[in-house]
Specification:
- The complex is a heterodimer of chains A (252) and B (270).
- By secondary structure, chain A is α/β, with parallel strands linked by helices.
- Chain A contains 7 helices and 9 strands; from the N terminus they run E-E-E-H-E-E-H-H-H-E-H-E-H-E-E-H.
- In chain A, the strands form 2 sheets. Chain A has a 6-stranded mixed sheet, with helices on both faces.
- In chain A, helix 2 runs parallel beside helix 4 and helix 3 crosses helix 4.
- With 270 residues, chain B is mainly α.
- Chain B folds into 2 domains: 43 residues; 208 residues, MetI-like (MetI-like fold, Orthogonal Bundle), CATH 1.10.3720.
- Chain B is built from 10 helices and no strands.
- In chain B, helix 2 packs across helix 3 and helix 3 runs antiparallel to helix 4.
- The longest helix of chain B is centred in the N-terminal third of the chain and has 39 residues.
- The two termini of chain B are 34 Å apart.
- Classes of the chains: A alpha/beta (252), B mainly alpha (270).
- At the A-B interface, helix 2 of A face helix 7 and helix 8 of B.
- The structure holds adenosine-5'-triphosphate (ATP) and magnesium ion.
- Magnesium ion binds next to helix 1 of chain A.
């Protein structure tokens, strides 16, 4: 599927792990073509270990593809290091909080990189901690927070930088049903109101159907099995059909 | 639930008792060694086993006489200067080695080779290569502690969490900020440990360095005591150096307790 204005482009991207000289390399991503349009809310589904996080790492410029080209906003995210400062925010699969920083200091991390003055930094961080229901815990160290609280701190850390591209690796998986629903709605609003582009990984078909406006299901090793768009007028019956289709692919 | 008065008092007595028992278990080994020494002093001449009272008097004498105390402080200064020099050079080498495989392959064997060279050999090299007492001692101190510092900092850098490093990198920090927010806090615990270990090593090496050439310092004074067979003096000077190491260790531990408050402590200890 081609997109009018792709902001993220993967062109025949392969990522292999392991010593290539030994010949025992393992392909996590296999000749993947993917274009994500500006303003899209893309849900990425796929079995565990199919290479979803690896795709994120390549888009974020944390790893280099073995072959193929990744471009974000027309640039190479791995080599153009400074150009992407403040442009991409990532919610990692595990919270990755710095243990020597309190909750609020962790949220301020990205803002420090953008040279935002301390007062304003604190204000923004507290705003996001409040939105995620963490007020009263801002001075706690990560080891004193629960798993779900840590995950929410890491969501706050990513969103606080106000980046235009959001990559979220199962952001709502460690949360209870109610909190998850509230945050999904908040996330959807944030992305749609500010014209951001978001790619989120999920294991929940319902979550994908609820907030995604495009769903991609991956095979293992990662390449596209299903790529479909949801319109606002997609009916419940059509959604059920889509759900069935996705389940069939994931069951393979 | 409120405790009745006598119960509370008993609790407090119990706690005080526990503190005393702890303190006692700390000093017991020293008391035993000191007692054995003191008993030996009753049966042997003073140049073999001097009375601890004499040793204590000599210690006190060192502390109150500036010309003697300045010797202790000179030695302390040499230890700290040598460690600081070795630390900065070692840290710089470690950063280079962590960044480049080929630098690592080149420098590792050299440092390992240095580690095998005895302190006394460095003393001889220093005397031949350098003029002046202080440059010689500084050189000896740096060369003997450099390999350990380098390997310890390198190990700390290599042991940094890849997940956390990548998280910080995803915010695209400048190099200076990466050091400030990630690398330094992550390796600080290992650096503190390295200082503690090397402090002990350096205090043993420094007297050797001073034995040959220095005209002041604990090593020089020890040599004087040896020439007149003054065991009490030798012990007193040794104890002064040990005191210093204990104080420095206590300062480092105090800093650790403040800086590493963030660490989670499990109720199940190792
Ligand atoms: N650094 C690495 N070195 C070697 N193999 C790796 C590395 N990172 C990932 N892999 C392998 O690549 C495959 C894909 O990993 P990835 O983390 O992208 O999966 P995923 O789709 O995110 O899975 P999950 O849903 O369980 O998070 C896995 O089989 C994994 O073993
Ligand atoms: Mg993953």
């Amino acid at each position: 599927m081609t997109v009018a204005q792709p902001i993220i482009r993967l062109d025949q991207v392969t990522k292999a792990f392991g010593a290539s000289s030994a010949g025992a390399s393992f392909k996590a991503v296999d000749r993947l073509d993917l274009e994500v349009g500006s303003g899209q809310m893309l849900a990425l589904l796929g079995k565990t270990g199919c290479g979803k996080s690896t795709i994120f790492n390549m888009i974020a410029g944390l790893t280099e593809p073995t072959s193929g080209i990744v471009t974000v906003d027309g640039r190479n995210p791995f080599h153009d290091f400074d150009a992407f400062r403040g442009k991409i925010a990532i919610v990692f699969q595990n919270d990755r909080l710095l243990p020597w920083r309190t909750a609020v200091q962790n949220v301020e991390l990205g803002l420090e990189m953008l040279d935002i003055p301390p007062g304003q930094r604190n204000e923004t961080a507290m705003h996001w901690l409040g939105k995620l229901g963490l007020l009263g815990h801002e001075h706690d160290y990560p080891h004193a927070l629960s798993g779900g609280m840590r995950q929410r701190v890491s969501i706050a850390r990513a969103f606080a930088t106000d980046a235009n591209i959001l990559l979220c690796d199962e952001p709502f998986s460690a949360l209870d049903e109610m909190t998850g629903r509230t945050l999904r709605a908040e996330f959807l609003k944030l992305v749609k109101e500010n014209g951001k582009t978001a790619v989120f990984i999920t294991h929940s078909i319902n979550e994908a159907l609820e907030i995604g406006d495009r769903i991609i299901v991956l095979r293992r090793p990662a390449n596209i099995a299903i790529d479909l768009r949801l319109e606002t007028e997609t009916t419940v019956a059509e959604k059920d059909e889509i759900r069935q289709k996705i389940q069939n692919v994931l069951a393979m | 639930m409120t405790m009745s008065e006598p119960q509370a008092a008993r609790g407090a007595t119990k706690a005080r008792g526990a503190i005393w028992r702890r303190a006692f278990s700390y000093i017991l080994p020293f008391v035993v060694v000191a007692s054995l020494w003191q008993i030996a002093s009753l049966f042997f001449p003073p140049f073999l086993f001097p009375s601890l009272i004499d040793v204590f008097k000599r210690c006190f004498g060192i502390l109150v006489h500036w010309d003697q105390l300045s010797d202790v402080l000179a030695t302390v200064g040499r230890i700290l200067a040598g460690l600081a020099g070795a630390f900065f050079i070692g840290a710089a080498l470690a950063v280079v080695m962590a960044r480049s495989q080929s630098a690592n392959r080149f420098l590792s064997p050299i440092l390992t080779l240095f580690q095998g060279i005895p302190a006394l050999s460095w003393v001889v090299f220093a005397i031949i290569w350098f003029h002046g007492i202080e440059p010689r001692i500084f050189f000896i101190m740096v060369m003997t502690t450099l390999p350990a510092f380098t390997f310890q900092v390198l190990g700390a850098l290599q042991g940094m969490s890849r997940d956390l490093t990548e998280m910080v990198m995803s915010f695209r920090p400048t190099r200076a900020k990466l050091f400030r927010v990630m690398i330094i806090p992550a390796i600080l615990p290992d650096i503190m440990t390295a200082w503690k270990v090397n402090l002990g090593n350096a205090s043993r090496v420094v007297v050797v360095a001073e034995l040959v050439g220095a005209t002041g310092g604990v090593g020089y004074e020890l040599l004087q005591q040896q020439q007149v067979f003054d065991m009490a003096g030798a012990l007193a000077w040794t104890l002064q150096l040990v005191f210093f190491v204990l104080i420095a260790q206590a300062v480092l531990t105090f800093i650790e307790n403040i800086v590493f408050r963030y660490r989670a402590v499990s109720e199940r200890t190792l």
